[in-house]
Design brief:
The complex is a heterodimer of chains A (288) and B (218).
Chain A: H1 7-62, H2 68-79, E1 82-87, E2 93-96, E3 112-116, E4 119-125, E5 132-137, H3 141-188, H4 207-254, H5 261-286
Antiparallel strand pairs in A: 1-2, 1-5, 3-4, 4-5
Helix pairs in contact in A: 1-3, 4-5
Chain B: E1 2-6, H1 10-22, E2 26-30, H2 33-42, E3 47-51, E4 53-54, E5 57-58, H3 59-68, E6 75-79, H4 84-92, E7 97-100, H5 105-120, E8 126-129, E9 132-135, E10 140-143, E11 146-148, H6 152-163, E12 168-169, H7 171-178, H8 189-201, E13 206-209, E14 213-216
Parallel strand pairs in B: 1-2, 1-3, 3-6, 6-7
Antiparallel strand pairs in B: 4-5, 8-9, 9-10, 10-11, 12-14, 13-14
Classes of the chains: A alpha+beta (288), B alpha/beta (218).
Subcellular location (chain A): Membrane
Keywords (chain A): ATP-binding, Kinase, Membrane, Nucleotide-binding, Phosphoprotein, Transferase, Transmembrane, Transmembrane helix, Two-component regulatory system
Enzyme class (chain A): transferase
Chain lengths: 288, 218
């Protein structure tokens, strides 16, 4: 289907596309900020967990009790989002939660974040004992939170986009209604109707056009009146002398008796009739 | 018939006047509205040929004025304006027919005769008067197998009597049909033409109503 060439339609489409792009841009920036904030928040959680778990783990090492594994169970299982392992100065794992790696590929160089496999981790160490702890994320909460946030930003767009487009279409039509009124008024004008445009108050954008059209109609009406007057006068000025000449010729033709001039009179009458037909054609082409 | 021609063009008016006169009618030719109004006030015309564009006014105004006074004289408009609106305006103003210039003189004569017949109450061109069959359109009179030829003035008187068949037509009315303005009227002109008609058509064709005028019976 070929769309009609419509300013209102084009405005509505481009405004809808513009709104959509603006929203997408804003959502992309928001996603970026959100991702950064979420990363910071999750990292802070890892860091705090590491610093809180390390003393407890060391305490368990120095004063063994039945609580070694429950620490892991309590912290890790309760959170459900990370696990940990404790290593000594040689890198040997001395305590590990159930789902933690069994060995460390390398001893973390200091306190800080690192990647183990593709999992985010935070390493903290006790400088006096040489023990250290690595807390690793076990869940994909970070990604899920980001996806949820992105979904919350983009799904309304999908729902609101048609509503927004409809609203834009309505607003554009409303804004274009003076133009439509002016179009209808101009469309009603023609050869038979050159009446002035109504005195409706036009928007400033349309007022000059309406004024020019009104002035044009006045000039056109004046020109057509002159044309009509000229045609009427032409009719009188042309037909009356032809009628006179024709009538006089016919009178001559009625003269009794056959004489040499009769054939010439008939020729003149024929020529006058031709002239009359030609003038009628000329007048017909000038008739409004 | 006595016809008033209102036409300001010298050439056309002259031709119309000559043609109408040649067909047996008396014609008064006026070139201005005020002259035409004065003529209409003084003479009982039987038909008016009226141009619309006149030097001192519009023929339509003259026509409206005429009808406003209650005159029922037949009026044929002759004009160079052929717009439908002007025609309608003319007919609505009380015109009986409309001729657009340039027109054929024989067509004009036919229309004049047709309008006159309509006004006489008998639009048919064939009329029976006694033993004579009269064709008002061709002005041909047949008595049995023989045709009767009338002069223009004889025809003018006879036509006037036929147009009022069954009614008495006064002597002055018949004089009116015979002479236009300025023509010399002989005192016994009507009697002369009546006498000639009786000779050609039969004595009983025209009845004299003493002191009143003449009559052709239906």
């Amino acid at each position: 289907m070929k769309w009609p060439y419509s300013i209102a339609l084009r405005l509505a489409i481009w405004l809808s596309v513009g709104t959509c792009l603006l929203w997408l841009g804003a959502a992309a920036i928001s996603t970026n900020v959100l991702q950064h904030e979420l990363a910071e928040s999750f990292d802070e959680g890892l860091r705090q967990s590491a610093y809180r778990l390390l003393p407890l783990a060391l305490h368990d090492l120095w004063e063994p009790s039945e609580h070694a594994l429950p620490i892991a169970a309590t912290e890790g299982a309760a959170a459900g989002s990370f696990t940990y392992l404790v290593y000594d100065s040689t890198g040997k794992v001395v305590i590990r939660a159930e789902d933690a790696p069994q060995v460390l590929s390398s001893i973390p160089s200091g306190d800080g974040f690192l990647l183990i496999g593709n999992r985010r981790a935070f390493a903290a160490s006790d400088h006096r004992s040489g023990f250290g702890i690595v807390v690793l994320e076990t869940s994909n909460y970070r990604g899920e939170a980001l996806r949820d946030a992105i979904g919350a930003l983009f799904w309304p767009l999908a729902g609101l986009l048609p509503l927004g487009a409809a609203g834009i279409w309505f607003a554009v039509r409303l804004a274009m209604s003076p133009l439509e009124r002016l179009r209808r008024e101009i469309a009603e004008r023609g050869g038979a109707n050159l009446s002035p445009l109504s005195n409706n108050k036009h928007p400033v954008e349309l007022a000059p056009i309406a004024q020019e059209v009104a002035a044009l109609l006045v000039r056109l009406k004046s020109a057509m009146d002159i044309e009509r007057e000229f045609a009427a006068n032409s009719a009188h000025e042309l037909r009356t002398p032809i009628a006179g000449a024709l009538a006089q010729t016919q009178r001559l033709a009625y003269e009794p008796g056959e004489h040499p001039a009769q054939s010439r009179i008939r020729d003149i009458e024929s020529a006058l009739r031709n002239l009359s037909h030609l003038s009628e054609k000329a007048l017909a082409t000038r008739s409004p | 018939m006595r016809i008033l021609l209102v036409e300001d063009d010298q050439v056309l008016g002259g031709a119309i006047r000559d043609h109408v006169a040649a067909t047996g009618h008396s014609v008064d030719w006026m070139k201005r509205v005020d002259d035409a109004e004065a003529a209409l006030d003084g003479v009982g015309y039987e038909l008016v040929l009226l141009d619309l564009n006149l030097p001192d006014g519009r023929g339509l105004d003259l026509l409206r004025h005429l009808r406003a006074r209650g005159s029922s004289v037949p009026v044929i408009i002759t004009t160079a304006q052929d717009q439908i609106g002007v025609r309608i305006e003319g007919l609505n103003a009380g015109a009986d027919d409309y001729l657009v210039k340039p027109f054929d003189l024989s067509e004009m004569s036919a229309r004049v005769a047709a309008v006159a017949r309509r006004y006489s109450g008998n639009p048919a061109p064939l009329v029976t008067v006694g033993a004579a069959q009269v064709n008002l359109a061709t002005k041909l009179i047949m008595q049995g197998e023989e045709s009767v030829t009338l002069t223009q003035r004889e025809w003018a008187v006879f036509e006037r009597l036929i147009s009022r068949r069954g009614s008495v037509v006064s002597r002055s009315e018949l004089e009116n049909s015979l002479y236009e303005f300025g023509a010399e009227i002989e005192s016994n002109a009507v009697e002369v033409y009546i006498s000639r008609l009786r000779k050609k058509l039969g004595r009983k064709t025209i009845t004299t109503q003493r002191g009143l005028g003449y009559r052709v019976d239906k």
